[in-house]
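Feature request, filed as a ticket because there's no other form

It would be nice if the structure record came with a short human-readable summary line next to the tokens. Right now we just get the raw output. Example of a typical job, pasted below so the devs can see what we mean:
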Amino acid sequence: MRFDEAVIAPWEDSVEDLEVWERFKDAHRINFKRRTSKTADDLEPDDRFPPPRYWVIHTLSHLLIRQAAMSSGYGSASLTERIYAWKGDDEHPPAAGLLISTTASDSEGTLVAWWSWPSRTSSRIS
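Raw output as currently delivered:
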């Protein structure tokens, strides 16, 4: 599932201007310093903090996994996610997307059939 960068980028800019986002980053900095060793002192916590697009896509991914597990017959532990969410830079274009796949090679459920119906996702995500 790929998200429209023309929608994601302005939304992300608006989130980054919020005070709650700054508090979220402050909490990350504290946790980062608390959990890393002295050898990591030269690492910048902000460089390792995902942008807002990551958090919203990750949350949506978990909601979709939960719904797919209930509807397809797969257990949620049999589904995995791959999040593509970063701002662009000189070397990489921006990304905003996700991939949900099965971790099992058997026919435990009917995920392919569930995802193949556009009405299951396109009408619910806008």
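Something like this underneath would help us a lot:
The longest strand covers residues 79-86.
The beta strands are 79-86, 95-102.
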